[in-house]
Amino acid sequence: MLDELEGFYRANLAELRRVATAIAGDRELGCDAVQEAFARAVRKRRSFRGTGTLEAWVWRIVVNAARDARRRRPDLAEPAEPSANGHAPVIPLDLLTERQREIVFLHYYADLDYASIAEALAISKGTVGATLNAARRTLRAALEEVSS
Amino acid sequence: MNELEVLDEYVPLRGETPEWDEVLRRARRRRSPRLLVAVVVALAVFGGAPALAVVLLHNGKPGLPSGADRSNVAIMLQPQTGRIVLEVAPWKGHDGFCYFAYFNRSGCVPRSNQTVVTAPPIFGWTFDPRVAEATATTFGGKHVQLLVRRFSGRINATFFFEAQRYALLRNIVLRDRHGHVIVRLRKSAR
């Protein structure tokens, strides 16, 4: 089990850190969350019952660690600098809900299929599909607005 | 720009260096503090206390200055998150204490009646059994009541923590239950 965890960590580190960074909102916190998540996984490895995949089990721990990191993050948010037209610039991802963002990150950054995302986030596959579609619509609409 | 480009720009893909040994170190190291957090949060939730300090043997988490007596460390946790916000320990060989506060503020200070560790205060914790209430005056002249939580412990000190955006307070007054002033602290505008 420890070997499998290490193998998964080494093979997917870039994706793990990318997702955790996106959820935590900070590269350093994201990397720390991955380390912390795998430390948890190592400690709790005997509680993995094999009812789902090891991959999804680990992803769930990583997502939870990244959420924890984001909650503990100091409130460093500064008001965005207004652009030339006097409006603060809008990052399209900010328009998504927390769940939409997590699903988008797991799908695009980690290349997880719907079933794995559903297992990692403890939701149904149908919810994953519907949420991902809604997120894509929101992103596309925002990008079209920006480009027009 | 399409959605994939937005995502690529948001968190760019980069080469990563594995740190598996550090994972294993964390897995070994974090066992006892996790137990502590669980106990303290449970007590904070079920005990009806606002939060609490616990004096216990501690395993030398980085942060406290080297002069701290690590065999007798009080740890204060934020009940909602379980995050350690303050560690305090007696100062070895001195009549005073050492502290390590959230965001890496640390030091050792002699004990005195005037011991208040602060930068502009918004929320305080006190180990001083005399303190019953705290008030402050803003730079605008407004009087405000400060929230103070009291803990048991051998350290006669009161801690306040700042948030930059609340750096508005000009002075703090700590009073005992009879309304007598224990400490009057003034700070200059920054």
Short description:
The complex is a heterodimer of chains A (148) and B (190). Chain A has helices at residues 2-24, 27-43, 54-72, 98-108, 114-121, 125-147.
Q: Tell me, what is the CATH class of the largest domain in chain A?
A: Mainly Alpha
Number of strands of chain B: 12
**What is the largest interface, and how many residues per chain?**
A-B, 36 and 26 residues
Q: How many strands, which pairing sense, and closed or not: the largest β-sheet of chain A?
A: none
Order of helices and strands of chain A: HHHHHH
Coarse structural class of chain B: alpha+beta
Low-confidence stretches of chain B: 30-61, 118-122, 162-167
CATH topology of the largest domain in chain A: Rna Polymerase Sigma Factor, Chain: A
Number of domains of chain B: 2
- Could you list the spans of chain A in which at least 5 consecutive residues all have pLDDT below 50? 75-90
**Rg of chain A, alpha carbons:** 17 Å
Strand content of chain A: under 5%
Distance between the termini of chain B: 44 Å
Protein topology:
The complex is a heterodimer of chains A (148) and B (190).
Chain A: H1 2-24, H2 27-43, H3 54-72, H4 98-108, H5 114-121, H6 125-147
Helix pairs in contact in A: 1-2, 1-3, 1-4, 2-3, 3-5, 4-6, 5-6
Chain B: H1 3-10, H2 20-29, H3 31-46, E1 53-56, E2 73-77, E3 84-90, E4 96-101, E5 105-110, E6 116-117, E7 123-126, E8 133-138, E9 143-150, E10 158-161, E11 169-175, E12 181-186
Parallel strand pairs in B: 6-10, 7-9
Antiparallel strand pairs in B: 1-2, 2-3, 3-4, 4-5, 7-10, 8-9, 8-11, 11-12
Question: What are the defining features of this structure?
Answer:
A: mainly alpha; Rna Polymerase Sigma Factor, Chain: A; Arc Repressor Mutant, subunit A; 6 helices; globular; B: 190 residues; alpha+beta; Immunoglobulin-like; 2 domains; 7-stranded mixed sheet; 5-stranded antiparallel sheet; 3 helices
